[in-house]
Design a protein that fits this description.
By secondary structure, this protein is α/β, with parallel strands linked by helices. It has 2 domains: 4-160, Quinone Oxidoreductase, Chain A, domain 1; 164-266, 3-Layer(aba) Sandwich (Rossmann fold). It has 10 helices and 13 strands. A 5-stranded antiparallel β-sheet has the order 8-3-4-5-9. Helix 5 (162-172) packs across helix 6. It is globular and about 65 Å long. The mean pLDDT is 94. Bound molecules: zinc ion (2 copies). Residues 44, 46, 66, 161 line the site of one zinc ion. One zinc ion binds next to helix 3.
Length: 268
């Protein structure tokens, strides 16, 4: 089967405003592939960072987007866990070897053959992959996630990157009822992390830099909102938290932030 043409939005320069309509080609449907009509795609800060690197790092126009939600339009002959019409999502990866020790352990991001990113990379056939700012995409079935009917497709889309990025550490480190959690930042990741942690029963404090976000933090479930500037501010919350999740893309003074942690929980 020939590669199919798909309409897309392509960034052509390092300014995020330099998007143009274009036509890209998707790979043919393999036996274990799922074809998805894209309905929504979030804008993650990584998309912005990558677009900013087009001129110097990538030196080619590209189609970003890795928070994809949509509806299955076709399935390969070996796919039995999805059917046409299913509501699904796709995050950062669309393929891996499926055989190496990392793939077998569910750690496909370390695939020995090289995991295939949804964009900014080449498929195993050597063709460049392009992301979700497009009409449709083809993905290996194990990288497709079901989206429940009661979850709006537009609202589900940011969960595919911002959501998993914050859910994973909270889950991995056993956040539970009564955990004292500090979330640094209340942007794209921070507002989701705050909701996850508070729904897990944790006592959440958001550490921000603007008083204007205090109400928002509480609406998302935080018990407290703190602005920490001086060493005295940090001393005041010395040993106050079991877990600290930074969601900000700025350099922090970790010597100060580590003081916020309860040492007995850090060292077991
Ligand atoms: Zn692998
Ligand atoms: Zn992302």
């Amino acid at each position: 089967m020939a590669r199919t043409e798909v309409k897309a939005l392509e960034a052509t320069g390092s300014d995020f405003s330099t998007f143009h309509r274009t036509v890209i080609k998707r790979r043919e449907l393999r036996p274990d592939d799922v074809a998805i009509d894209i309905k929504y795609c979030g804008i993650c800060h990584s998309d912005i960072s990558i677009v900013e690197g087009i001129d110097t790092l990538f030196k080619r126009p590209l189609v970003p987007g890795h928070e994809i939600s949509g509806v299955v339009s076709a399935i390969g002959q070996n796919v039995n866990n999805f059917k046409v019409g299913d509501r699904v999502g796709v995050g950062c990866f669309i393929d891996s070897c499926g055989k190496c020790k990392y793939c077998r352990a569910g750690e496909e991001q370390f695939c020995e053959k090289g995991v295939i990113s949804v964009f900014v990379g080449d498929d195993y056939d050597g063709n460049p992959t392009e992301g979700g700012y497009s009409q449709s995409i083809i993905v290996k079935d194990r990288f497709v996630l079901s989206i429940p009917d009661k979850l709006d497709l537009a609202e589900a889309s940011p969960l595919l990157c911002a959501g998993i990025t914050t859910y994973n550490p909270l889950k991995r480190y056993g956040i539970k009822a009564g955990s004292r959690v500090a979330i640094v930042g209340l942007g794209g990741l921070g507002h989701i992390a705050t909701q996850f942690a508070s729904k897990m029963g944790a006592e959440v404090t958001v550490i921000g830099h603007s008083e204007s976000k205090a109400d928002e933090a509480k609406q998302f479930g935080a018990k407290a909102y703190e602005i920490l500037k001086t060493p005295a501010d940090f001393d005041r919350l010395n040993g106050h938290f079991d877990f600290l999740l930074s969601t900000v893309a700025v350099k922090l003074d970790w010597n100060q932030y580590f003081k916020l942690l309860d040492v007995k929980n850090v060292f077991g």
